[in-house]
């Protein structure tokens, strides 16, 4: 029972899409420098990913892999259309700033490739719960990254001036995003290994992520 | 002459999609894993970015500005067609190579580096109408693909060290590679 609960919660606890899987990292690195950007990205990512994976789960499993991948990409690109129209109404400024990263959210690897490897091996109810936590995991990373970068790079929190003595302007640049995300990945692994009983095995689990 | 060459190299690195826009970073990690992966992934991404931008030109020319939200759907459809054609051609012409290379084709098709290249070029052409030509689109696509190869070579050079036992376990692999890319990106940014 515990194992089942853990696997549903994996998106946050053990297998965070960004910090462990290194998926969907470009929007976090480039656009995750203010909370306003983060809010727009979180909203768009959550809706597009949730609906796309849910609709994609009805695609017949017997189809060839290539056809399935194309179908998933086309489904998410279709879901993007109304989400984009709604975002133009609710987040017009943020959409301008996010630019090309907004449509790129729709063809993220969590939808196009990981659906086969992770979600479609589960029952629909368990898949929905697991997907919810994977999305929540991305949202949390996006928000934390944006909070840290906005505070240290601009000296504000959600556009309100905060009392920060020293600003690190480089954090708003892409290289600042790369370095901060690298540090967060390392910290996440360390925390995970400390919290898990089998300590070092968790660290080694995705030490060689490129070999995936 | 040497100065021109240095300037060209700096301009090429500064425009690099990975170092300046973080596009295709996850695939880069896979490409840098081995020489075989580097050649396979880089070649497929180069094909997809070049063909993709050619299709993007046709789509952008035909699509009215009021229907911009359908651009992603049309780009995805164009890439999908090329994806199927490439796999079919490879299978019928070289079945053995198909077994070896299909993994890289799957990896490259809906990659952020590919889709990001199409959207970046489209955005550039929206801002500067002189760029809205077939030649400019294809040139940009090929340059983006070559930029991916350059970034993959830079990462390959340090790959073993970043995955060695001398790196703390928590940072070994992915986190170390992100920090390394951040440092390279900072160096390129300072040259701009």
State the oligomer.
heterodimer
Query: Cα-atom Rg of chain B, whole angstroms?
Result: 18 Å
Question: What about the largest sheet of chain B?
Answer: none
Distance between the amino and carboxyl termini of chain A: 28 Å
Overall 3D geometry of chain B? globular
Number of helices of chain B: 9
Structural class assignment of chain A: mainly alpha
* Strand segment count of chain B: 0
Query: What sequence of helices (H) and strands (E) makes up the elements of chain B?
Result: HHHHHHHHH
Mean pLDDT of chain B: 86
What is the N-to-C order of secondary-structure elements of chain A (H for helix, E for strand)? HHHHHHHHHHEEHH
Number of helices of chain A: 12
The helicity of chain A comes to: 55-70%
Q: How does this model look, in words?
A:
The complex is a heterodimer of chains A (212) and B (192). With 212 residues, chain A is mostly helical. Chain A has one domain (2-196). Mean pLDDT of chain A is 84; it is low at 207-212. Helix content of chain A is 69%, strand content 2%. Chain B is mainly alpha-helical and 192 residues long. Chain B has a domain at 24-156. Chain B has nine helices and no strands. Chain B has helices at 2-14, 17-21, 25-31, 35-62, 71-93, 95-109, 112-127, 134-162, 174-191. Chain B starts with a helix and ends with a helix. Chains A and B meet through helix 3, helix 5, helix 7, helix 11 and helix 12 of A and helix 2, helix 3, helix 5, helix 7 and helix 9 of B.
């Amino acid at each position: 029972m515990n194992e089942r609960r853990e696997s549903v919660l994996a998106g946050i606890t053990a297998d965070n899409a960004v910090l462990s899987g290194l998926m969907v990292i470009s929007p976090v690195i480039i656009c995750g420098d203010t909370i306003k950007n983060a809010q727009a990205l979180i909203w768009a990512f959550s809706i597009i990913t949730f609906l796309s994976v849910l609709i994609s789960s009805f695609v017949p499993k017997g189809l060839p892999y290539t056809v399935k991948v194309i179908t998933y990409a086309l489904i998410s690109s279709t879901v993007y259309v109304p989400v984009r129209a709604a975002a133009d109404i609710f987040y017009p400024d943020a959409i301008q700033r996010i630019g090309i990263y907004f449509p790129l959210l729709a063809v993220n690897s969590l939808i196009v490739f990981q659906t086969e490897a992770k979600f479609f091996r589960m029952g629909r109810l368990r898949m929905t719960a697991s997907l919810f936590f994977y999305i929540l995991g991305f949202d949390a990373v996006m928000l934390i990254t944006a909070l840290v970068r906005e505070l240290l790079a601009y000296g504000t929190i959600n556009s309100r001036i905060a009392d920060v003595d020293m600003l690190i302007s480089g954090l708003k640049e892409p290289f600042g995003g790369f370095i901060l995300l690298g540090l967060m990945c390392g910290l996440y692994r360390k925390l995970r290994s400390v919290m898990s009983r089998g300590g070092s095995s968790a660290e080694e689990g995705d030490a060689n992520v490129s070999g995936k | 002459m040497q100065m021109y060459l240095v300037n060209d190299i700096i301009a090429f690195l500064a425009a690099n999609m990975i170092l300046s826009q973080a596009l295709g970073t996850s695939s880069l990690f896979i490409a840098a894993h081995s020489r075989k992966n580097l050649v396979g992934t880089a070649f497929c991404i180069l094909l997809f970015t070049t063909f993709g931008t050619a299709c993007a030109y046709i789509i952008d020319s035909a699509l009215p500005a009021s229907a911009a939200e359908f651009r992603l759907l049309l780009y995805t459809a164009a890439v999908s067609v090329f994806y199927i054609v490439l796999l079919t051609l490879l299978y019928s012409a070289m079945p053995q190579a198909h077994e070896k290379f299909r993994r890289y084709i799957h990896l490259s098709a809906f990659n952020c580096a590919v889709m990001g290249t199409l959207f970046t070029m489209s955005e550039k052409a929206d801002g500067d109408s002189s760029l809205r030509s077939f030649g400019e689109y294809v040139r940009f696509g090929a340059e983006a693909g070559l930029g991916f190869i350059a970034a993959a070579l830079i990462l390959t050079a340090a790959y073993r060290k970043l995955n060695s036992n001398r790196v703390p376990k928590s940072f070994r692999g992915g986190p170390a590679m992100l920090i390394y890319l951040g440092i390279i990106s900072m160096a390129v940014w300072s040259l701009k």
